[in-house]
Write a structure and sequence with these properties.
Length: about 210
Amino acid sequence: MKVVAFNGSPNKEGNTYHAIKIVLDELEKEGINTEVIHVGNKSIRGCIACNKCAKNRDEKCMYPGDEVNEWIQKMKEADGIIIGSPVHYSSIGATLKAFLDRAFYVTSNNNGMLRHKVGAAVVAVRRSGGVPTLDQLNHYISYSEMLIPTSNYWNVIHGTRPGEALQDEEGVQIMRVLGKNMAWLMKLVENGKGSVKEPERERKMYTNFIR
């Protein structure tokens, strides 16, 4: 099994990375392969609403010139996905959001590529805004019918300078417990294949209230 993690911080080894790494360490202890992809320092344009990915159904975003399609395939191949973000004005980092908007729209419109994979979000913050950012990240995961492991508190760790989050003892424990629970859930899913029938995917219904 494999987990791919996306680091949405501009800093390659800032506190968002350390939060992700704590989770990945627990997964690796359980024999799960891991990979971290640094998204936050890239130049990623937001979705331009062309809807080509839904029409073509080729698992690709039509906007050229970046690594989004490569990352989408890594998400497809993985059994679990972690999304990590810093907090910018109580929200997701802009570059990460541009990637998530495009990637999750592609995967949702191509036979639910992420459906029933295990997905978790983690947030690193200096002081406040962590919970709203975590909630925003979870919107992508829950919309895709992914399975969400939990911890013993919200998945938020605190720190300012890179590495400072490791001094947040409660935050470190939250990430550690999340990693253990994520590994356990992934094993449940893997061991249930073939013995527990997976519910059929329903076609998405759209209701418009303005005619």
